Amino acid sequence: MMTGVRVPEEYVQDGQIILNVAPRAVGNLEMSNEAVTFHARFGGRPHSVIVPIYAVQAIYARENGAGTMFEPEEGYDEIEESEETQHLSSAESLKPIEAAPSDEDPGPDDEPPRPKGRPSLRVVK
């Protein structure tokens, strides 16, 4: 994995990970010229995610597939080569963050509970 990237390693496939950064999927989303950072749940466990801009390969809309791919930045090769020569310690790997105490009121990003029983329609005039 590239230096500075912090994602759950168990979800990385072939050195890549696809992240859904929709407002309903992440919290505390910040996008700057240096990095994309946010909190998200992976397999029900909360994680803090950091992706430096040089590691972003593409951005696209899930709804229609429209988007763009990026060429590797100059200096990226140097970062990758220096990473190969250094052994990263296990302390640098991603750790789960503590879940904040949840309120009884569902937030605007939470899905409403599924109704129980048989579905029904009502005519409103």
What coarse outline follows from CA principal-axis ratios?
extended
Strand content: 15-25%
Please report the number of helical segments: 1
Counting helices, strands and paired strands, the structural category is mainly beta
Looking at the structure, the CATH topology of the domain at 9-92 is: SH3 type barrels
Rg over CA atoms: 19 Å
The overall average pLDDT, rounded, is 75
Low-pLDDT residue intervals, each spanning 5 or more residues: 87-91
Strand order of the largest sheet: 1-2-3
* CATH architecture assignment of the domain at 9-92: Roll
CATH class of the domain at 9-92, anyone?
A: Mainly Beta
- Name the CATH homologous superfamily of the domain at 9-92: SspB-like
Helix percentage: under 10%
Query: Describe the biggest sheet?
Result: 3 strands, antiparallel
How many DSSP-defined strands?
5
First CA to last CA: what distance? Answer: 59 Å
InterPro entries: SspB, SspB-like_sf
Pfam family, one: SspB
Protein name: Stringent starvation protein B
Region (Disordered): 69-125
